[in-house]
Amino acid sequence: MRTNTNAPPAPMRYRVGDVVTDAQRALTGQVRDVHGNLLTLVRPSGYLWEVAMDQCWTASPEERQSLIPRGAVRVISTSPAPPSS
Question: Tens digit of pLDDT for each residue in 18-41?
Answer without folding.
Answer: 999 999 999 999 999 999 999 999
